[in-house]
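One thing: can you check what follows?
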Amino acid sequence: MKEHPMVTGVYGSTLLDRVIDHETKPYVYEGKKQGYAEASDEYEKKLLTQAEEFIKQKKDFQMERDAYEALLDEYEIEIDKLNSKLNKSEDEKEYLYQLMLKERELKKLGK
């Protein structure tokens, strides 16, 4: 049951309900339009923010990948250096073995 602001004490009148609906429809329509516009603006902001975050993540990933590849290169250089040495001490053999294990683990991460 609705009450028109200009009339007090009258509830549930069919004619009054029609008058109230007729008076409020334009405002409801405008409110819906404004609500859709606000939702659209929020959605656009969300999409732009997501794109910016994705680009940042991609750059971070590229930097991490480059660091990973540089680390693998360092391992390969050190392994080659130790492999080329003819008379290795026991410590060097153990170090070479550990390097090769770690290099293998690192390469598995890259797959």
User: Anything to note?
Assistant: Residues 36 and 42 are 10 Å apart (CA to CA). The mean pLDDT is 81. Residues 12-82 form one domain. The chain has two helices and no strands.
